[in-house]
Write the structure tokens for this entry.
Amino acid sequence: MNQTQLSSLLTPILQQVGLELEEISVIPAGKRRLLRVTVDGDGPRGRGPSLDEIADATRAVSTALDSSVLVGNSPYTLEVTSRGINRPLSAPRHWRRNRGRLVAVTLVDGSSVTGRVVDSDDDAVELDIDGIARRLPYPDVAKALVQIEFNRPDAEEV
């Protein structure tokens, strides 16, 4: 399976269901292959795709692959999944979709900060770090991960 050709096939199909293609991976699994399609999107609350959107995408991708010669005759298992919170924030849209969440950021100078995403635009993110606003240009960010918070009191407000 050629990932570039798969990407060309699946990108417009996912756009029709309101999602973006984030990544395609093909993993050998015995005599089969696992074709994992990772998607992203705003979803109904601007925080990522809903389960219904993932289900719609799975049906659309499956139909497209069934009618394509790209997968050949070899058996495969299709998995359509969202980015999840364990993937690094690497594009402005990722920051926007994680507004209000706590993130751990490693900067290119080797230092690190943890703060809540207050706002973001195409150039930088604004974090609330212990009550102090700090704007971080994306080129200054080496890696950023959403932190899992259990029992956050104001989670429903975000």
